[in-house]
């Protein structure tokens, strides 16, 4: 199927491994240029090197160290990507945490906060930084990785379920507020995917 992605410009948070890296690889194979953002430089560099092997003379892959829970880092990453590519067509909000898994009363507040900072604030920060560029150019696509946890509760997952419910509403807000300006805001619940997060889920019981 022809996706029409040749020449598209994308930023992917949590793009150095798992779902984010798979999305980045697919995009570059379709002719898009990608910027992947992640916290660990060693993994990020290796992933950019792997992605570059799929690029042609007309597209490229880049990586920026970025903690999505820090707005200044997010804004700098988006600005660098826009400067590199000359614009931004696609934003994929993939960065997310699940660990640790505890019942509500057993959580250390700082651990609960960290998941909300990444899973909720990180999505808002990325949207906030990307939207002005998409508005100026007259359109774009924002894809937020959601989860069935947005609709159903699992024991020990209060932080994750709450965060994904928030992402669902952020996605709906993006559609309500910017669809008329050519910006498509979508949520994707990919189901069970063989990533490191699944190892944690199984270990938690």
Furnish the topology, listing elements before pairings:
Layout: E1 9-13, H1 18-29, E2 33-38, H2 41-52, E3 61-65, H3 71-85, E4 90-93, H4 109-137, E5 140-145, H5 158-178, E6 183-188, H6 196-204
Parallel strand pairs: 1-2, 1-4, 2-3, 4-5, 5-6
Describe this structure in words.
The protein has 205 residues and is of the alpha/beta class. 48% of the residues lie in helices and 16% in strands. It has helices at residues 18-29, 41-52, 71-85, 109-137, 158-178, 196-204, and strands at residues 9-13, 33-38, 61-65, 90-93, 140-145, 183-188. β4, α4 and β5 form a beta-alpha-beta unit. α3 runs parallel beside α4. It is globular, with a radius of gyration of 17 Å. The model has no long low-confidence stretch (mean pLDDT 92).
Low-confidence regions: none
Biggest beta sheet attributes: 6 strands, parallel
Radius of gyration: 17 Å
Shape descriptor reads: globular
Question: What gap, in angstroms, lies between the N and C termini?
Answer: 40 Å
Strand content: 15-25%
Which features characterize this protein?
16% strand, 6 helices, 205 residues, alpha/beta
Offer a quick outline of the entry.
The chain is of the alpha/beta class. The protein is built from 6 helices and 6 strands, in the order E-H-E-H-E-H-E-H-E-H-E-H.
